[in-house]
Amino acid sequence: MTTLALPIATQEASAEEHPLLFSGVVGFFFIFRICLNFLFFQSDLVVGAAVSFAIDLALLFCTVLYSTDVRAHTPARLFQIVPLRWIAAYLALSLASVFWTGAQSALAAAAYWASMAVDVLIVLLLLRQEDAVRQAEGILKGVVVGAAGVSLIAWCSPTTADLRLGNDLFLHPNSLGLFIGIATLIAQYLASQSSTWKWLGIALAITFLRALSKTAIAAFLVAELWYLMQNTQMSRKTKARIVAAALLVIACFWGLLRAYITAYNTTGSGNQVETLTGRTVLWTIAISMSLEKPWLGHGIYSFKSLVPPLGIFQPVHAHNELLQQLFEYGVVGVVVAVGIYWSFFRQARRSQTTGLSALCLTLLIFSLVRGLADTINFGLSFPFWLMAGLSISLARSQPTEAHAL
126 near 139, Cβ under 8 Å? Predict the structure, then answer.
């Protein structure tokens, strides 16, 4: 009997771990794909985008297979979660805007929308299962590992002309700042489970600082300060160690930081439009053009096509979260974006799951502060797939909400 029981137990454990491994693969790809063009498709970005979308579709197909024969919640029950309703409203608005977009290629705009929607759908299918919290944790672990892979590639590559980690065309330091910053905060959340995540978090934090993304660093400091101040479960000694480690890292990079500031000031780059001080010019133009179509905006993927080059700089987004939404989706888009952030804030604030709630609020602060002076081409700085996963996990962690779902 014993000899039969052991293999059966092993098989059951393997069956439980297999889906969690898959959710980790999903989280890994969502982060690591920012390297695909840099590694393989610098000569043809269209092919790179097609390959990335093809992998997305393959993951969706595998997710459908995994979620077919398990107990799951219906989509109607999932959309009782308020942030998911707002995300669905945003996706509906951005899809409708394809019909009036000012983008050079409506087909390309539709393809980018499809990629954004598929990401959310993959997460919804994975987390509609009974073990949604464990699946969400698997995605978070995949995010950290994916960011570690991105970091390794960035460290092995030549720096930019202004000494930052990354590549100005294919692996921008600001993108590294966003995604590695998110992964660092997630690693901090996972650190209580294993020292592996703690050391990965430290390595990611060093890479994050080395990318020298000024807006992301400022946002991270604000978010981390809030996290340390409100965290009553962490001892003062641990908090002091974190602060001391941060100061030590800054001291180690002080020579590089001085060289970067010197290059930034002496080469005249501080007067360029892409810097923080020069972004007011871009914001003025974006506001003026937004007023031409104030209610529904110019449509998805239109900013890059409609805003003219400013000298040698071609802006691809507004470098401000709400202004980007106003330009592409008008006042309606701003209302929906605010609704997404506000509903997620309320859900996280009301949650009784202390650690997960703190992670959600910390990521929210990081995204909102970064969004004051930077953003991304599609969606919001807080990735929809990540917000959807955390929102479902929060709901499933609450006894009353889990029962209702």
Answer: yes
- Predicted pLDDT at 258: 76
- The residue whose two tokens read 């499933």 is 396
List, in sequence order, every beta strand (DSSP E) within 191-317. Answer: none
pLDDT band at 277 (very low <50, low <70, confident <90, very high): low
Q: How confident is the model at residue 74 (pLDDT cuts 50, 70, 90)?
A: low
Question: What are 113-117's contacts with CB under 8 Å, separation 24+?
Answer: 113/300, 113/378, 114/53, 115/52, 115/53, 115/56, 116/91, 116/378, 116/379, 116/384, 117/91
- pLDDT for position 142: 97
pTM of the model: 0.92
Q: Residue 129's beta-bridge partner residues?
A: 72
Question: For residue 268, what pLDDT band results from cuts at 50, 70 and 90?
Answer: very low
Can you tell me the distance from the alpha carbon of 266 to that of 264, in angstroms, rounded to the nearest whole number? 6
**Secondary structure of 30-98 in HEC code, one letter for each residue:** HHHHHHHHHHHCCCCHHHHHHHHHHHHHHHHHHHHHHHHCCCECCHHHHCCCHHHHHHHHHHHHHHHHH
Distances, alpha carbon 55 to alpha carbons 24, 136, 274, in Å: 15, 20, 32
For the packed helices 195-210 and 214-230, what is the interaxial angle rounded to 10 degrees?
A: 140
The closest of 379, 366, 385 to 336, measured between CA atoms, is 379
Amino acid at 180: I
DSSP secondary structure of 313-334: B--SS-SSHHHHHHHHHHHHHH
Task: Let me know the angle formed at the C-alpha of 121 by 58 and 135, rounded to the nearest 5 degrees.
Answer: 85
pLDDT at 167 over 90: yes
Length of the chain: 405
pLDDT band at 361 (very low <50, low <70, confident <90, very high): very high
- Rounded distance between C-alpha atoms, residue 320 and residue 282, angstroms: 10
* Nearest CA among 17, 131, 13 for reference residue 71: 131
Token pair 């890994």 is at which residue? 28
| DSSP code of residue 150 | H
CB count within 10 Å of CB 359 equals 22
The number of CA neighbours under 13 Å toward the Cβ of 141 is 19
| Radius of gyration of the CA atoms of the chain, in A | 22
Sign of CA dihedral 381, 384, 389, 394: positive
Give residue 317's region: left, alpha or beta (phi > 0; psi -120 to 50): beta
The alpha helices in 99-192, defined as continuous H runs, are 106-127, 132-155, 173-190
- What are the C-alpha distances in Å from 25 to residues 30, 32, 139, 192, 195? 9, 10, 7, 22, 21
